[in-house]
Design brief:
The complex is a heterodimer. Chain A is about 0% helix and about 55% strand. In chain A, strand 9 and strand 10 form a beta hairpin. Chain A is globular, with a radius of gyration of 13 Å. By secondary structure, chain B is an all-beta fold. Chain B is built from no helices and 11 strands. In chain B, strands 2, 4, 5, 9, 10 and 11 form a 6-stranded mixed sheet that branches. In chain B, strand 7 and strand 8 form a beta hairpin. Chain B is globular, with a radius of gyration of 13 Å. The chains are: A mainly beta, B mainly beta. At the A-B interface, strand 10 of A face strand 4, strand 5, strand 9 and strand 10 of B.
Chain lengths: ~110, ~110
């Protein structure tokens, strides 16, 4: 139990579907992150939220839309994804932006058909 | 652009062997270097290094940082099958979030 919970654990969707990934942290942290992990690539930072405000958007396509209603919850809304978007999506949190170490969730394994 | 390079990318050893994983970096305003272990799920924190030459140790795992040569090594002695995982190196620089390397996939066979 890392204190960061992600749902669902696995998701298979077609390119025209709309789905959302959810992340919840029980650590009292103020910063939350979305990372993408593809095979043979480094963890890629997608978005950073600090006190519910987005502080970084790492040139992510608009088919990924984050939402952070409060410091404990983070969503990633998915729409019209491409096969190359299939990956493990990891959520992380830290006390402050850039704080270390970051606590990670178990990830959502996303497969796009 | 900040960069973290890990080597080797993959490694297969037998139980009982000692392994050394490498991480080199090029970043602006280095703050710390972190090692994580990722099995099938979430990466879990192993070590954070901020000062050169001071070894961090936890059981059979140890790590050291060289800020002059810009690298760190992670050593695992008397490896076990449970050590099989991806080992991630990440560097914190300036006020930006962590920059990760591609990881080293370690497989320990009985």
């Amino acid at each position: 139990e890392t204190g960061v919970t992600q749902t669902p654990r696995h998701l298979v969707m077609g390119m025209t579907n709309k789905k959302s990934l959810k992340c919840e942290q029980h650590l009292g942290h103020n910063a939350m992150y979305w990372y993408k992990q593809s095979a043979k690539k480094p963890l890629e930072l997608m978005f950073v939220y600090n006190f519910k405000e987005q502080t970084e958007n790492n040139s992510v396509p608009s088919r990924f839309s984050p939402e952070c209603p409060n410091s404990s919850h983070l969503f990633l809304h998915l729409h019209t994804l491409q096969p190359e978007d299939s990956a493990l999506y990891l959520c992380a949190s830290s006390q402050v932006v850039g704080g270390r170490p970051q606590h990670f969730g178990d990830g959502t394994r996303l497969s796009i058909l | 652009e900040d960069k973290v390079v890990q080597s080797p990318l993959s490694l297969v050893v037998h139980e009982g062997d000692t392994v050394t994983l490498n991480c080199s970096y090029e970043v602006t305003n280095f703050r710390s270097l972190l090692w994580y272990k990722q099995e099938k799920k979430a990466p879990t924190f192993l070590f954070m290094l901020t000062s050169s030459g001071i070894e961090k140790k936890s059981g059979r795992l140890s790590s050291i940082l060289d800020k002059k040569e810009l690298f760190s090594i992670l050593n695992i002695t008397a490896t076990q099958t449970g050590d099989s995982a991806i080992y991630l190196c990440a560097v914190e620089a300036g006020n930006t979030p962590l920059v990760f390397g591609k990881g080293t996939r370690l497989s320990v066979i009985a």
